[in-house]
Amino acid sequence: MSQNEKVDKVRRNLVVATTVAGGLATVGAAVPFAASWLPSERAKAAGAPVEADISRLAPGEMQVVEWRGKPVWILRRTKAMLDGIKKSDPMVSDPKSEVPQQPDYAKNEFRSIKEEFVVLEGVCTHLGCSPQMKPMEAKAEMGETWEGGFYCPCHGSKFDLAGRVYKGSPAPLNLPVPPYAFVSDGTILIGDDKKGA
Predict the structure, then answer these.
(1) What pLDDT score was predicted for residue 146?
(2) Among 131, 189, 181, which residue's Cα sits nearest to residue 160?
(3) Domain 42-190, what fold?
(4) pTM of the prediction?
(5) Which positions ≥6 away from 24 have C-beta within 8 Å?
């Protein structure tokens, strides 16, 4: 092998090695860069929007998702549940939702965009405990006028199925309705209402 052939072989090896190293460096830099476009856990906790698939949520069922480190309830209400909300009007403190605990598009009888679905922050407005859902059938425990809703076992606050607080409860306000939008019939985006409403 001549001196020129040896030099060419060394050059070829250097070119191949440099190309491989450069390619690996590019991939190594691109992966974290592309990953930086995804919302971090910290960003999600700070309030990045969260999508919830409600396509399989049956009437009467509730789904819980986390947004800003808090539970958010998505309840698909039945006709009987909606009728119970109307019957609760005289028993709740803020029947017309005058206190701004919801976006304007949810300031209505059912505190929702679509009356069938309600989206509520599942945190009691008294001291921040998480209430439990109590169905209409819990009249023996909750009282004869109970039409279904949420009960906070910490201090006894009661909320109807629109998240409105009952008179005499320690909780001063209705449960908050977070900003949300229907992305499609089967998907709700919580934390961003710019896509619909």
Answers:
(1) 95
(2) 131
(3) Rieske Iron-sulfur Protein (2.102.10)
(4) 0.75
(5) none
User: Model confidence over 83-126: pLDDT tens digits?
Assistant: 999 999 999 999 999 999 999 999 999 999 999 999 999 999 99
The pLDDT tens digits for 9-48 are 666 666 566 665 666 665 565 556 555 555 555 555 566 8
Distance, in Å, from the CA atom of 5 to the CA atom of 189, rounded to the nearest integer, reads 65
> Residue 196: what pLDDT?
47
The per-residue DSSP string of the chain comes to --HHHHHHHHHHHHHHHHHHHHHHHHHHHHHHHHHTTSPPHHHHHHT--EEEE-TT--TT-EEEEEETTEEEEEEE--HHHHHHHHHHGGGBS-TT--SSSS-GGG-STTSSSSTTEEEEE-S-TTTS---EEE-GGGHHHH-TT--SEEE-TTT--EEETT-PBBTT-S--SPPPPPPEEEEETTEEEET--TT--
How far apart are the C-alpha atoms of 67 and 47, rounded to whole Å?
6
Domain boundaries, the chain: 1-38, 42-190
